Amino acid sequence: xxxxxxxxxxxxxxxxxxxxxxxxxxxxxxxxxxxxxxxxxxxxxxxxxxxxxxxxxxxxxxxxxxxxxxxxxxxxxxxxxxxxxxxxxxxxxxxxxxxxxxxxxxxxxxxxxxxxxxxxxxxxxxxxxxxxxxxxxxxxxxxxxxxxxxxxxxxxxxxxxxxxxxxxxxxxxxxxxxxxxxxxxxxxxxxxxxxxxxxxxxxxxxxxxxxxxxxxxxxxxxxxxxxxxxxxxxxxxxxxxxxxxxxxxxxxxxxxxxxxxxxxxxxxxxxxxxxxxxxxxxxxxxxxxxxxxxxxxxxxxxxxxxxxxxxxxxxxxxxxxxxxxxxxxxxxxxxxxxxxxxxxxxxxxxxxxxxxxxxxxxxxxxxxxxxxxxxxxxxxxxxxxxxxxxxxxxxxxxxxxxxxxxxxxxxxxxxxxxxxxxxxxxxxxxxxxxxxxxxxxxxxxxxxxxxxxxxxxxxxxxxxxxxxxxxxxxxxxxxxxxxxxxxxxxxxxxxxxxxxxxxxxxxxxxxxxxxxxxxxxxxxxxxxxxxxxxxxxxxxxxxxxxxxxxxxxxxxxxxxxxxxxxxxxxxxxxxxxxxxxxxxxxxxxxxxxxxxxxxxxxxxxxxxxxxxxxxxxxxxxxxxxxxxxxxxxxxxxxxxxxxxxxxxxxxxxx
Length: 654
Prior knowledge:
This protein is an alpha/beta fold. The protein has helices at residues 2-21, 26-37, 49-69, 72-77, 79-104, 109-120, 124-133, 140-166, 174-198, 200-210, 213-233, 238-248, 255-279, 283-288, 290-316, 319-328, 335-345, 351-398, 413-424, 436-444, 457-462, 478-491, 507-513, 521-536, 541-553, 570-574, 597-600, 639-649, and strands at 406-409, 429-433, 449-451, 470-473, 497-501, 517-520, 580-585, 608-614, 617-619, 632-637. A six-stranded parallel β-sheet has the order 3-2-1-4-5-6, sandwiched between helices. Helix 2 runs parallel beside helix 13 (255-279), helix 5 (79-104) packs antiparallel against helix 15 and helix 6 (109-120) runs antiparallel to helix 17 (335-345).
């Protein structure tokens, strides 16, 4: 197993890096590693029982961290989703799949029941991983999906109990086994509740007092593994026990620290789980029956997605929540693999059917990240374009008589602050923003805000940019601000344009593109802080104001750049456009020693020499100033320019 793990981790390291460059979900990368390294492809990894058992702990850690977010009160509040929506989803989906198998295949009644029940379950690992990475676990569709998944985890235990019964090997009546499994779940829940309420808080308090981080990490690991071990002993799902344990600790003061300690183990083991899923795919079966696999995959995704959509639509009335929930739950799940293995052991399903269903399930899993990420983005773009087109005439007619007004591009924190001052002083303005929730809330508050992309010519013309007095660009994205500026200048070359930027990295670019004024937010906050410091030190307010105006008049030259600190690679740390401040001390062998500032030709590197420090003296650089050994040259510029200039300045004279 050690060799298998080494191969998997090395392959995952390369593949995940490539997938991230291609902007593909890492889950697909792990599945690709499993398929490529598996017995039916390269054959580098065998995929034994030990590896699969270890991979299951990835799901265990994932359910534990999810449980930390769902406290007991929140869980009780979701009971209608868990037992109401969850039970209906499973029942209707299993019934539809059973009818499909019974009508189109020659499977036995028992095999059709097992396959329908197994494929009605969705992938807890994939759905929760994607919802978490997209920050959608607490959204309406995320909570509905999680509620259904929790019910499915409980049903999976009952399905595992049913297989031996259907195979004729059950020692007791099937419903007694199911009632026994439910009783053990309730017993486990009550026991963990008591421990988390009266034992664990005291233990964590003592560990926190010891101030040993490794003890906290060990305690968090012990809790997860102990909960999984208890449920395993009770012949229940390890993931179910981990979720209950996490939920019990959801109200603890140490919840965030526990989650931070668990996350590295969770992500690594969860990646191993997805690799183990990929190992189950038989490339030969997949290629030989590719048409059947694709057809069944599309049928599975369609049936599960439509059932969930109709149920959520009926219960909530929201089409958006319904189709998002349907996309999240449209795939097969990891519990299906356990059911197939058990059914094959009891001779209910043959090997060919097992390989086919595994291929279909994995294909549906591969589709899920693409559906969750791609379809909502596509729908949002279509909805935004349709909405903008439908409201363009309405916006144009509403502002047909406006003149001498201010246009605010972006209505976030900064745009709203400017709008409040304009409203207070009774200046007319209209704002544009591409956040529908923000536009709706601001519109309800009486603000003149419209939804739309400020980079569009027709939208700016609709709000009367030709008759406007000024444009303020307050978008929190430098590239978007530059594009808006270009659009404004295409329409009007004379209108004053004020641009808010986060720092000075695009200051010169904005000026060259036609900005009347560029206000770097970080530099302005630095000026405000410095002015307060000088006033408190005794400098007259009028003198301080004159100094600040002088700095602004020089385009913040005094504040250009900053010392980058302990960063081994400036390019990785700050990017190409960030202006840095850097000091270079001349050595005896430096190329610049004995030369004048003009002879260095620093203009070739697009950097600016701020000042020279010689001993305790600091002075402005003059072109004919001769540089000496020990001089500290302080200059500002981009990362690559700094590195190139320093290479010339310090170049060995020999």
